[in-house]
Design a protein that fits this description.
The complex is a heterodimer of chains A (264) and B (355).
Chain A (H helix, E strand, L loop, with lengths): L39 H16 L5 E5 L7 H4 L3 E4 L5 H11 L4 E7 H7 L1 H9 L5 E6 L2 E2 L5 E2 L18 H4 L5 H6 L4 E8 L3 H19 L4 E7 L3 H4 L3 H15 L3 E4 L5
Parallel strand pairs in A: 1-2, 1-3, 3-4, 4-8, 7-8
Antiparallel strand pairs in A: 5-6, 7-9
Chain B lengths: L2 E6 H11 L4 E4 L6 H15 L2 E4 L3 H13 L4 E5 L1 H6 L1 H9 L4 E7 L15 H5 L10 E3 L4 H18 L2 E7 H5 L1 E6 L25 E2 L6 H21 L3 E4 L6 E4 L2 H16 L4 E6 L1 E3 L3 H8 L4 E6 L5 H9 L5 E5 L8 H12 L4
Parallel strand pairs in B: 2-3, 2-4, 4-5, 5-7, 6-7, 11-12, 11-14, 14-15
Antiparallel strand pairs in B: 1-8, 6-13, 10-12
Helix pairs in contact in B: 1-2, 1-7, 3-5, 10-13, 11-12
The chains are: A alpha/beta (264), B alpha/beta (355).
Chain lengths: 264, 355
């Protein structure tokens, strides 16, 4: 079965530059996202690249992709990028930033990458106050390896390696990384956002923008945690998964700024 | 003639890192090479602006090297055996992403936590891969403090020529002992960086990606073929070794680094006894100088290999001579250092019927 191409009729009188209300930022490569329908990754990729375009820093920013669902982030983001080993993104970003302190550097990491295998690298980069932005996608599950328990899986939540629900007596409690990192004096801006409603999408974009502004000012380590969904591995429709975020995820991972820089 | 100084191997190596125009050093302290990061922390930044950062682990430091080398910078890390084991993941990624950098292993006795005394037991790990996947490091084996300095320069030159990580495979004795050393002149740090480096996407040019991920097997195979081609080039062009008095030799002593140095003294003792012994000392242990052993195999009666391990390089020597001449071994392990007299005694036992 071949792919069906649907021709969309275009009225040239309406399709004019001045009537344009939305377009994909030029900082995306144009390659179709491989992410599952409804997944938050695509939204965050787009937001980040919008911010890069609006700040006009496409030539000044270097990204670090993780191991996880967003391992191919560099296929979509039209900026210089490095692919890190699983969990090592913050160390790789440290190497880049220390060599080029005037460039913007960010990592894009999932919960397994940032809060399990890479916990040491994350905490020490934060503790050194590395002047980087960490974008942390928390969907409470290992997506790419198809649904195993993550360090952020909710108590009682079923995954393929906690089929009877996460038993906190056996495997401990989900890590609240934002609150944990906010206790370190060298972190500048730690915020938790989500992309499950249009309003939250707007707030996430603002947070990304703020974090990059702070990096420009040299304020130190910034993290934007984004509570996200995983319809495929949660075995839900996209809508159901957004409802799960609202009802289950946000009560455990409350949204909002956890730490903001002091105004001097 | 360059500046002459009396220096400890680790400090001479650190001085060479500054003088070679290194942009960054990321490391974690471990005996017997902590003097490197201490020396650099005192000296480097004020002199050249070089970045010196103590990482939280060797896992972190090698990944900082990945990031910094990916930005086209000239960077190095140093460690000793247990720390180098922790770096194997990163080294595999660095080899896969084809990033030039310099890694120094001041080897100590193992396995496990082992001992802090000198050893050469990491030869297999250094020359045959160490991490996962089909790859090679360029491996240089210094036998004195002078080569601890010279191989810093050579290591970077080869690493950058082939876009491949290079390793200096030293040992605790090379790191700790003091010798006279001639230092090369201070080189300026580079201000221009390679085309492939991720320094920010150039206007109107494609973005640069540093990665070892090639998910399609057809592509991954092509990447591997290209890497193998690169290793064959190194094997053709970069083999380095030293020979002493091999022309009239009936027997050959061999070894790398400290083992070779001990074999040199043993050779002197044997020569004084009237036994014609020559010496072959590989300076590159990858690529390994197979041809010189192959050449000498039909001209001598035997080869004695001296190492501070259970016999590792000897496998390459035997591979080279293809059974045409007996190759015997003398070694000590666990941080013990063979003395030249025992080497000669062992030689006489195995080759001269215990005379």
């Amino acid at each position: 079965m071949g792919t069906q191409v649907v021709e969309i009729p275009i009225n040239p009188e309406i399709v004019q530059e001045e009537n344009l209300v939305y377009r994909k930022p030029a900082t995306l490569t144009g390659k179709p996202f491989h992410y599952c329908p409804g997944c938050g990754h695509s939204t965050v990729h787009k937001l980040l690249m919008e911010v890069v375009a609006e700040m006009d820093i496409q030539e000044e920013i270097i990204g670090v992709a993780p191991v996880g669902c967003s391992v191919f982030a560099y296929d979509y983001m039209d900026i210089d990028m490095q692919e890190a080993a699983h969990g090592r993104a913050c160390a790789v970003a440290t190497g880049i930033k220390r060599m080029m302190p005037d460039k913007y550097v960010f990592t894009y990491q999932g919960d397994g990458d940032l809060a399990a295998i890479g916990t040491a690298e994350t905490i020490h980069a934060a503790n050194r106050g590395e002047n980087i932005l960490v974008i942390f996608i928390n969907n409470a599950v290992y997506g790419m390896t198809s649904g195993q328990m993550a360090p952020t899986t909710l108590p009682g939540m079923a995954t393929t390696t906690s089929p009877f629900g996460r038993d906190v007596k056996q495997v401990g409690y989900p890590l609240r990384m934002s609150e944990l990192l906010a206790t370190l004096p060298a972190t500048a801006y730690i915020t938790r956002q989500s992309v499950h409603t249009p309003n939250n999408v707007r707030k996430t974009k603002k947070a990304l923008q703020r974090a990059l502004e702070y990096q420009k000012q040299g304020l130190g380590f910034c993290m934007v945690e984004i509570v996200s969904n995983c319809p495929s591995n949660w075995k839900m429709t996209p809508l159901e998964s957004n409802r799960f975020i609202e009802e289950k995820m946000i009560p455990y991972y409350p949204l909002g700024d956890v730490k903001v820089p002091e105004v001097k | 003639m360059g500046e002459l100084r009396l220096m400890k191997g680790n400090e001479a190596l650190a001085e060479a890192l500054i003088r070679v125009g290194c942009d960054g050093y990321f490391g974690y302290p471990i005996t017997p090479q902590s003097e490197v990061i201490e020396y650099l922390s005192r000296e480097a930044t004020a002199r050249t602006g070089m970045v010196v950062l103590q990482a939280e682990s060797e896992v972190a430091s090698i990944n900082m090297i990945y990031g910094a080398a990916g930005a086209g910078r000239r960077v190095a890390t140093t460690s000793s055996s247990p720390g180098i084991s922790l770096m194997q993941e990163g080294l595999s990624y660095i080899a896969g992403a084809e990033l030039p950098c310099l890694v120094v292993n001041v080897v100590r006795g193992g396995p496990g936590l082992g001992t802090i005394q000198p050893s050469q037991a990491d030869y297999f790990q250094a020359t045959k891969g160490g991490g996962h996947g089909d790859y090679h490091l360029i491996v240089l084996a210094p036998y004195n403090v002078q080569e601890m300095v010279d191989f810093v320069k050579l290591g970077f030159e080869l690493a950058e020529k082939y876009r491949n990580p290079a390793m200096i495979l030293a040992d605790g004795a090379m790191g700790q002992m003091m010798e006279k050393v001639e230092l090369f002149e201070q080189q300026p740090r580079r201000t221009e960086f390679p085309e492939w480096a991720t320094t920010g996407k150039p206007k109107d040019k494609p973005h640069r990606i540093v990665t070892s991920l090639f998910i399609e097997p057809e592509v991954m195979e092509q990447v591997n073929l290209r890497l193998q081609e690169k290793y064959r080039e190194m094997e053709k062009n970069e083999v380095r070794y030293q020979t002493i008095d091999i022309d009239d030799a009936d027997y050959i002593f061999t070894g790398f680094g400290l083992g070779a140095r001990i074999a040199m003294k043993a050779m002197e003792i044997a020569r004084n006894k009237g036994i014609k012994v020559g010496l072959i000392r590989p300076q590159t242990v990858y690529p390994f100088p197979y041809s010189i052993y192959k050449e000498i195999a039909s001209k001598v009666k035997g080869i004695l290999d001296v190492e501070l391990n259970a016999g590792q390089m000897i496998e390459d020597v035997r591979l080279a001579v293809e059974g045409r001449v007996p190759v015997e071994f003398y070694g000590r392990m666990g941080g013990m250092i063979p003395d030249p007299e025992s080497v000669v005694e062992h030689f006489e036992k195995v080759f001269l019927g215990g005379k």
